[in-house]
Amino acid sequence: MLGLAFMFSATASALNIEEDSMKLNIILKDKTLTATLNDSPASREFAALLPLTLQLKDYAREEKISDLPSRLTTEGSPEGTAAKKGDITLYAPWGNLAIFYKSHSYVSGLIKLGQLDEPDALPVHLDAYSARFELLTE
């Protein structure tokens, strides 16, 4: 486990990921959104997967979800959280990414990874669409 943590730490260092926050672009067909990831083990592991193209599909008319290519750590994360519009989260029981376009009450297993810089910018139509996540480098 220590080796795995070191691998992600080394990958994050190689990408020049700052310790306090990480900026990323989410590139859609017709626009680019910006987001800020928090400084947590799960967020750093997500950043280490980038660039990454995901298919976002609607779930419960509140969020866009997508499977990730590998499970992210939950080490050091709270048991759960409430979601605000624009939050980028990991739903640990399913291992998927969820971006909320509506606020939601507390959910056990929900881990906040970051937030959209403009919470209203995420398209909310019910169709699935492709999104490319790229870490911004200076």
UniProtKB/TrEMBL annotation:
Residues 27-122 form the Cyclophilin-like domain. Gene3D superfamilies: 2.40.100.20. This is Cyclophilin-like domain-containing protein. It comes from Raoultella ornithinolytica (Klebsiella ornithinolytica).
